[in-house]
Specification:
164 residues; five-stranded mixed beta sheet; 23% helix; 26% strand
């Protein structure tokens, strides 16, 4: 059964439970998914043309923005339950909008979170994030998951500037 939160906000567009999510930032890492969901749903490598994963001001995670010459690598996350959708949606900032986009080599659109405010001109660097920030980000995500309503953990090093 779907959560009551599905009728409100971004998740109100979803119906049923068989929706896939294109992830291009921190959610493509099994370590982050495990801390948030308690498991790692199936991940299939995917690419999205016409969009780029942009570095964001004062954040170490990216935002997906339209770019005619852009190409974003990520993964399609499938088998997400209603409860898991609610967790993932709460984890995303309010500046993201949940939209359906066509992923390369797929005939059916998938959902993804698109950034809606200013982004940096530089692209987000997945490998740099993995090397420098993944472990502390996963630990911070676990702390958020334990008590999202009262989470007040200061960002710490690496959170004050863009990932360029």
């Amino acid at each position: 059964m779907a959560s009551a939160a599905w009728s409100d906000g971004r998740l109100g567009r979803l119906s049923g439970l068989d929706h896939e999510l294109f992830v291009y930032g921190t959610l493509q890492f099994p370590e982050v998914l495990k801390t948030l969901l308690g498991r790692v749903p199936p991940l299939e490598p995917a690419e999205l043309t016409g969009w780029r994963a942009a570095a964001l001001p004062r954040r170490i995670y990216p935002g997906l923005i339209a770019a005619s010459d852009g190409r974003t690598s990520g993964a399609v996350l499938s088998g997400i339950t209603a409860v898991e959708w609610t967790i993932l949606d709460a984890f995303e900032d309010d500046e993201y909008d949940l939209r359906r986009l066509y992923i390369d080599d797929r005939d059916v659109p998938v959902w993804t979170y698109v950034w809606t405010v200013a982004a940096d001109s530089a692209d987000w660097q997945r490998d740099r994030f993995a090397a420098e920030h993944l472990a502390p980000f996963a630990a911070r995500s676990a702390r958020w998951r334990r008590d999202p309503a009262n989470f007040r953990d200061p960002p710490g090093p690496g959170w004050s500037g863009p990932m360029v």
